[in-house]
Amino acid sequence: MLSLLIYVFVTSITPGPSNLFMTNATRIYGFRDGKNFIFGILSGFVFLGLISYIAVLLFSNYIQYIETPLKYLGFIYLLYLSYKIFTSTNGKTTSKAYKSFKSGFILQVLNMKSLLFFITLVGAFIILMATGSTWVLIDLVVSLLIGWACLLIWAFAGSVLNEWLTRHQTAFNIVMALLILYSAISIFI
């Protein structure tokens, strides 16, 4: 159980597309105006958890065949996100999607880091450790709560550091783009 908790925390708290986009959303709009986007990401996280659990159970024999295409699609998607962040100028004019539940949900569902996180979580930890359906559910819920907490920490950071991040927007965009690029490259590491 300790290894599961460490895996969930470390993977959830490290920078990834959802964490960085939540930070940027609250930097631009704050919690109140970015709440739909944040709720979309959090809902997408739960959706991915449930879908990954079902997929690993149903398709465990086929994961090796779909893993490589998923990695390449995720890589291309993350490159696109990195480019969009790098080339954005003023958050308020280019980031209206940060107010939308749908945008947050889709971003999370297409987030390769989260998808691989859940496949690894369910396949390597939950299914092997859990002794019954109740424990599987408990492990999944605990993992989701830790993931949500980590996502909200990043959102809180964007809200608290709003003025500083806005003053250094170009540097912030470059760092965010590079972190997303690193996320893309780390799919193959």
From TrEMBL:
The keyword Membrane applies. It comes from the Bacteria. The chain crosses the membrane at residues 6-25, 37-63, 69-86, 106-129, 135-158, 170-188. It holds the Pfam family LysE. It is a multi-pass membrane protein. It is found in: Cell membrane. Its main location: membrane. Keywords: Cell membrane, Membrane, Transmembrane, Transmembrane helix. This is LysE family translocator.
